[in-house]
Automatic annotation (TrEMBL):
Hydrolase recorded as keyword: no
Lineage: Bacteria, Bacillati, Mycoplasmatota, Mollicutes, Acholeplasmatales
Superkingdom assignment: Bacteria
Transmembrane intervals: none
Signal peptide from the UniProt entry: none
Protein name: TetR/AcrR family transcriptional regulator
Length: 196
């Protein structure tokens, strides 16, 4: 493992245990046994480390979640259920849970992180749903409507529930605990938009 990898891995743990704001670059260097000045050979700032942590989350999303949006072999009900259940399971994986617990509170303070998470958590899923709804409408399997508005309506429930997880007293397992609620939302949405 390189020194940069040690710093990165160690910092995830340190940030999770002590909080991002409670640590300086000197603390981070000391934790891996290097001089404070040496850490700048690997990272320019603590924020750069945080952004790299966010990029790890984005890589995992690209691997495990984004391909689910391309499953055109499923019926709409299967598509929605598969995407919902698998995404919730993804965000409850221990490493992903650790990363999101660290990143979510900081997104409102750090502009680069805010922009990155806005694209990944809001814009990309909304665009994916909009495209899917356009496809259903074109095939006559969904009531005609503004596909982007339908995407916002559908996705807003999941965004709300995702952020509620971090505001609750028991965030671990929060998303998977409410599978029935997610199924009910999918059924209500499908009924409203007459999705076949």
């Amino acid at each position: 493992m390189t020194t940069k990898q040690k710093i990165y891995e160690n910092d995830i743990e340190l940030f999770a245990l002590n909080g991002y704001h409670n640590l300086g670059m000197r603390d981070l260097a000391k934790s891996v046994g290097i001089r404070a000045s040496s850490i700048y050979n690997h990272y320019k700032s603590k924020e750069d480390i945080l952004i790299e942590i966010a990029h790890e989350l984005m890589t995992e999303l690209s691997t495990y979640v984004y391909p689910l949006y391309k499953r055109m072999d499923l019926t709409p009900r299967e598509f929605f259920l598969n995407l919902s259940i698998e995404t919730n399971r993804f965000f409850e994986r221990p490493q992903i849970n650790k990363l999101t617990k660290l990143l979510i509170p900081l997104e409102f303070e750090i502009p680069r992180l805010k922009e990155l998470l806005h694209v990944e958590f809001i814009q990309k899923p909304r665009t994916g749903f909009s495209y899917y709804f356009q496809t259903l409408m074109r095939k006559g399997q969904m009531m005609e409507a503004d596909p982007m508005l339908a995407a916002k309506m559908y996705h807003s429930f999941f965004v709300y529930h995702f952020y509620e997880k971090f505001l609750s007293n028991e965030p671990d397992g929060f998303l998977t605990k409410y599978e029935t609620l997610f199924r009910n939302h999918i059924n209500l949405f499908m009924d409203y938009f007459k999705i076949q």
